[in-house]
Amino acid sequence: MITENQDLIQLLNTAVVKTKEKKIDSSYEERLSEVCQRPAINALSFAISKLSELENISQDQAAMELIETVRDLDSIWNDYVLMEGLTKLKDLLKATSNNQNSN
Length: 103
Description:
The chain is mainly α. It has helices at residues 2-23, 28-36, 39-55, 59-102.
């Protein structure tokens, strides 16, 4: 029984990895090159230098702080949008339930 489960788990894990592999865009080098040519990269370079100077930290530390801040903002907004969507969904379900109860 344990062996069957281990085989099944290995099979499922392999399937997960293989299906993800299909979704990976193999043109990452081309995409990375395109992104690195954007004016925003120059702006980030200036921001890193300025933050490094203002906070008296290395440029590596400044770059990591900027990335962490952007990730924090992205996470907060993702949570906000998710919660807003859930609230709308709950309201919709409540309205549907009320309509069915009044009929």
